[in-house]
Write a structure and sequence with these properties.
Helix content is 78%, strand content 0%. It is mostly helical. The protein has 2 domains: 210 residues, MFS general substrate transporter like domains (Growth Hormone, Chain: A, Up-down Bundle), CATH 1.20.1250; 163 residues, Growth Hormone, Chain: A, CATH 1.20.1250. The relative contact order is 0.13.
């Protein structure tokens, strides 16, 4: 069970970072522009897309532990780079952040699939594969608890005024400035990077069996050529396995839309008249839902059909997104929490069913295809929504008022695109699954 414990530790330390509540303003306070921030995020997403599937195949061939150690080392180096990033020279600063984003993308791609694969295989070797749902439940609840801690503390140590008040309360005359607190969340995350590396080094490598549970499915020999062969073979297997393909496609639809809404959450909070000082607390409240949603999802997955899992998730997401379109002052937070809780359900169900159906010899590769699908969905939805915003904005060019008022009006007028798109996507995918079943019969 060592790998299960280290897998949980890795997920907690790797994903919960102290700078997340101030992510955007951190980049801007260093001296970067909004345009440079957008470019860096695009580089990060592109790196993940390009490295996602090849890294999964390498994990299945050279070993999952090696990929996870690489991910942990990349995280450590990316945090060191942020700690040493200079201020003043914008071009040099951009170069530091560019390297940071590439390393961060490589770390995400290397970890995706390999972490679940090494833990699931360890359970399978012990004949405890049926306990995977329990592992996911514990992992998600612990990660949510850690997320609450990092979100709260990260926001506190970044605020110079609050840090000054705390120092004054403790009897100290120290006065903090933004330049002092700028790197505090980064230093704390560097500690998490060290703990992440320790957890990966303590993993036990579990090699895929010579023959997987699928007849004739042999684990390949270690080479780059075999990595590409395994990638193509796994892609064909997904296309020929309707259930796994459907799970990944439905997960792709939910994840892309819900993640985009979460990305826009701070703008939504402003529209429902929530004070900016409450955003960190709201993030912690969201994490609290992650402490009980996985347990509910596990019960449904173990006692009900996959269709029930799908429709309960769809009902939760659609109810939350539809409620958000009304932009109720203050009370608008409630439907937002409902919508965001659906993302925990998606994460649980997709991992539960894909690992259950996938042979050990290709598990990390298949999970990497899932990650690739998610990031393509998120990026595609982002581009489409940006084009929609620009189109709507042109229609309001003659509107009197400040540019900020126009932006807010466009945001509110286009938000209903999210529940409508999710509803249409669900209908189309459900129809495709039904047609596929009828043809199969």
């Amino acid at each position: 069970m060592n790998n299960v414990r280290q897998f949980i530790a890795f997920r907690v330390f790797f994903n919960c970072r102290f700078y997340y509540p101030v992510f955007t303003v951190l980049f801007l306070d260093f001296g970067l522009s909004v345009a440079q921030f957008s470019i860096l995020n695009a580089v990060w997403a592109a790196t993940i897309v390009l490295a996602e599937v090849p890294s999964g195949a390498l994990a299945d061939i050279v070993g999952r532990k090696r990929l996870l150690v690489f991910a942990a080392c990349s995280m450590l180096v990316e945090m060191v780079i942020l700690c040493a990033a200079p201020q003043g020279n914008v071009n040099l600063l951009f170069g530091f952040f560019l390297v940071n984003r590439v390393l961060s993308g490589l770390a995400e791609a290397a970890a995706s699939g390999a972490d679940e694969a090494i833990a699931y295989d360890a359970l399978q070797d012990l004949g405890l594969a049926d306990q995977w749902g329990n592992v996911l439940d514990v992992q998600m609840r612990l990660r949510s608890g850690m997320f609450i801690f990092t979100m709260t503390l990260g926001a506190v140590v970044y605020d110079p005024h609050l840090m000054t008040h705390i120092a004054d309360f403790c009897g100290s005359a120290i006065t903090f400035a933004q330049s002092d607190t700028l790197r505090y969340p980064i230093y704390l995350t560097l500690v998490l990077a060290v703990l992440t590396l320790v957890s990966t080094l303590r993993l036990d490598e579990v090699r895929p069996p010579a023959t997987s549970p699928v007849a004739g499915d042999r684990a390949p020999a270690g080479s780059v050529i075999e990595a590409f062969r395994l990638t193509l073979d796994s892609g064909r297997w997904i296309l020929k396995t309707p259930f796994v393909l459907a799970v990944i496609l439905f997960g792709m639809l939910f994840d892309g839309i819900l993640r985009m809404v979460i990305t826009l959450a701070s703008q939504y909070y402003r529209m429902v008249q929530l004070p900016e000082s409450s955003y960190g607390v709201i993030g912690s409240v969201m994490a609290v839902t992650g402490m009980f949603i996985p347990r509910l999802a596990r019960w449904i997955a173990e006692n009900r059909s996959p269709a029930t899992c799908l429709w309960t998730t769809a009902a939760t997401a659609l109810a939350g997104l539809t409620g958000m379109t009304f932009f109720w002052p203050i009370l608008g937070l409630v439907p937002a929490l409902v919508a965001f809780s659906a993302l925990y359900m998606v994460g649980f169900y997709v991992s539960y069913f894909v690992n259950q159906q996938t042979a050990s010899s290709r598990r990390a590769t298949v999970l990497s295809f899932k990650g690739l699908a998610y990031n393509l969905s998120y990026g595609g939805i982002g581009i489409i929504y940006a084009a929609l915003l620009e189109f709507k904005k042109r229609g309001l060019q003659g509107m009197d008022g400040l540019t900020e008022d126009v932006e807010n009006c466009v945001f509110m007028n286009t938000f209903d695109w999210f529940p409508i798109s999710l509803g249409i996507g669900l209908v189309v995918m459900a129809a495709a699954v039904m047609i596929r079943r009828r043809r199969g019969r």
